[in-house]
Amino acid sequence: MNIAVLGAGNMAWHLSKALIHAGHPVKQIWNRTADKAVALALEIGADSITNLNQIDTDIDLIIIAVSDEAIASVAKELKLLPQQLLVHTSGSTVLDVLLPFTQKAGVIYPLQTFSKAVELDFSQIPIGIEAFDESSTQALFNLVKALSTKTYYINSQQRLILHTAAVFACNFTNHFYSIAQALMQQSGLDFNLIRPLIQETAAKVQQVLPSEAQTGPAKRNDQLTIQKHLDLLQTNTAWKLLYEQISQDIVKMYAKDTSSLK
């Protein structure tokens, strides 16, 4: 398939390279900020375009890889040919957002955190696909199975649930890493001290379910330790509230296990 990618952010960088590696040429790159489109185009050997009307007639697949709120406005500017398949890559945006512009519509959703500076093995990234009609579904499946060994049919509601779960598992967790970093820096502690713990926690949930791997004072309902931590966080109201709310949720989740300790 000949492909045009609309967007030049982290997703666009990684997905474009993975598509090319799988033998699907990315011919054109567009971005509202032209120099970003040029940078990505130079990186992958594509042409950069400054106007959405410049998409070539031999493009088979147009991938919208922009912010969620911009998907519909970008799609509206396109002059699509009947045979061209239009997809977006959002985890929280329904497929239907594309249907006012074409019925050859779909979604490619790689479930991963993307940073330009960090290389990824796309073959190990779970990718959810959805399309409006059977022929588009088959076309996306054939494309994506060349990218990843983990390809799934996921509808819009399932994708929203998956995206929400990913925010808890990745984005919120990374924010907590940042809080840990700040706490340690305040006392002159090196963040490297806690990296082995982070690695072990991540490795553990590859072997058992997170509910089985939970440890810590809230799991034990150790109110004495919890209060010491809350006292330590007294000067940062936001962090103290986070700690308190999350601890309460953990205590509630494991109430049966900790009832004997109350």
Explain the overall architecture.
Pfam families: DUF2520, F420_oxidored. Residues 3-89 form the Pyrroline-5-carboxylate reductase catalytic N-terminal domain. The chain has 262 residues and is of the alpha/beta class. It has 2 domains: 3-154, NAD(P)-binding Rossmann-like Domain (Rossmann fold), CATH 3.40.50.720; 188-261, ProC-like, C-terminal domain (N-(1-d-carboxylethyl)-l-norvaline Dehydrogenase, domain 2), CATH 1.10.1040.20. 46% of the residues lie in helices and 13% in strands. The protein has helices at residues 10-21, 34-44, 71-77, 134-144, 156-186, 195-204, 210-213, 217-220, 223-232, 237-253, 255-258, and strands at 3-6, 26-30, 47-49, 61-64, 85-88, 105-110, 127-131, 151-153. The chain has an 8-stranded mixed sheet with strand order 3-2-1-4-5-6-7-8, sandwiched between helices. Helix 9 packs antiparallel against helix 10. The radius of gyration is 23 Å and the shape is elongated. The termini are far apart. Mean pLDDT is 94; it is low at 258-262.
Main features:
6-PGluconate_DH-like_C_sf; eight-stranded mixed sheet; N-(1-d-carboxylethyl)-l-norvaline Dehydrogenase, domain 2; 8 strands; disordered C terminus; Rossmann fold; elongated; DUF2520; DUF2520 domain-containing protein; alpha/beta; 11 helices; 262 residues; 2 domains
Can you give me a brief rundown of this structure?
Helix content is 46%, strand content 13%. The protein has 262 residues and is α/β, with parallel strands linked by helices.
